């Protein structure tokens, strides 16, 4: 029997990755005199991965990685005005309005009547917390957790803190490595709702083969899925 429905935030409740992709395209424009776009994209992806252990996930780390990439690819020749533009691009991302997926609030209000609700998201604490409150959804959640990594140890610690049996949890998100696999390993249920684009550090090459794994195309399908699951348990 489910007790807790947990959600990823970025690209599950609201759009985020498209903003990163648009900003990365602008970085390619800025650096076109120093390197072709393909080289810029590859260099930024490599720098981001290397910097995650220092800066963590999120817009601030992404912005610092853009600056580092710009300096590296230009051999230090990039102008101060261009560095300033890159920094301002990051600030614009931090101040961007929230764009919720259609139907998210209705789904949450429906589920709230029967289950505990949680957000489990990784990234910069201040940025992610601000997003939750800017979204207008904060009051619908019993728990909001911003973590540095989403792995088995992190989920296990959270469920233990909340006195929740992992088998009674459903985690919903767009990333198989972060939102799906760790929860399945703990014996929980996991629902993958792919986003139209995927961050380089969240790409996966093989789907889980687990009885508690489900893939949907829209968050609005969640209430019906849960109803079907609970009906099967009664039979």
Q: Can you tell me the CATH architecture of the largest domain?
A: 3-Layer(aba) Sandwich
Q: What integer is the average pLDDT? A: 93
Number of strands: 6
CATH T-level fold name of the largest domain:
Rossmann fold
Q: Tell me the name of the CATH class of the largest domain.
A: Alpha Beta
InterPro entries: HAD-like_sf (IPR036412), HAD_sf (IPR023214), PGP-like_dom2 (IPR023198), S-2-haloacid_dehalogenase (IPR051540)
Keywords: Hydrolase
Protein name: Putative hydrolase of the HAD superfamily
GO molecular function, one term: hydrolase activity
Structural features, described:
By secondary structure, this protein is α/β, with parallel strands linked by helices. The chain is 49% helix and 12% strand. It folds into 2 domains: 4-15 and 98-234, HAD superfamily/HAD-like (Rossmann fold, 3-Layer(aba) Sandwich); 17-95, Orthogonal Bundle (DNA polymerase, domain 1), CATH 1.10.150. The chain has a 6-stranded parallel sheet with strand order 3-2-1-4-5-6, sandwiched between helices. Helix 6 (125-135) links the parallel strand 2 (116-122) and strand 3 (143-147). Helix 1 (17-30) packs antiparallel against helix 4, helix 2 (37-55) crosses helix 3 (59-73) and helix 3 (59-73) packs antiparallel against helix 4. The model has no long low-confidence stretch (mean pLDDT 93). One of its GO terms (molecular function) is hydrolase activity.
Task: Describe how the helices and strands are arranged.
Blueprint: E1 4-7, H1 17-30, H2 37-55, H3 59-73, H4 80-94, H5 104-112, E2 116-122, H6 125-135, E3 143-147, H7 152-161, E4 169-173, H8 176-185, E5 189-192, E6 213-215, H9 222-234
Parallel strand pairs: 1-2, 1-4, 2-3, 4-5, 5-6
Helix pairs in contact: 1-2, 1-4, 2-3, 3-4
């Amino acid at each position: 029997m489910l007790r807790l429905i947990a959600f990823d935030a970025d690209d599950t409740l609201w759009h985020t990755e498209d903003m990163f992709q648009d900003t990365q395209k602008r970085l390619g424009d800025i650096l076109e005199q120093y390197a072709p776009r393909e080289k810029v994209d590859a260099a930024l992806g490599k720098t981001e991965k290397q910097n995650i252990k220092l800066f963590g996930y999120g817009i601030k780390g992404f912005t610092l990685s853009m600056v580092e990439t710009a300096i590296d690819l230009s051999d230090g020749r990039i102008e101060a005005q261009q560095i300033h533009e890159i920094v301002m691009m990051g600030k614009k991302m931090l101040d961007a309005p929230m764009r919720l997926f259609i139907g998210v609030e209705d789904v949450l209000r429906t589920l709230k009547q029967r289950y505990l609700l949680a957000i489990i998201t990784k990234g910069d604490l201040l940025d992610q917390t601000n997003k939750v409150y800017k979204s207008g959804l904060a009051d619908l959640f019993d728990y909001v957790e911003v973590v540095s990594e989403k792995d088995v140890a992190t989920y296990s610690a959270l469920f233990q803190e909340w006195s929740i049996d992992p088998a009674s949890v459903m985690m919903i998100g767009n990333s198989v490595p972060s939102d799906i696999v760790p929860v399945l390993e703990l014996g929980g249920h996991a629902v993958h709702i792919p986003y139209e684009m995927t961050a380089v550090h969240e790409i996966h090459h093989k789907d889980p083969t687990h009885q508690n794994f489900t893939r949907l195309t829209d968050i609005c399908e969640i209430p019906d899925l849960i109803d079907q699951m609970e009906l099967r348990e009664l039979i």
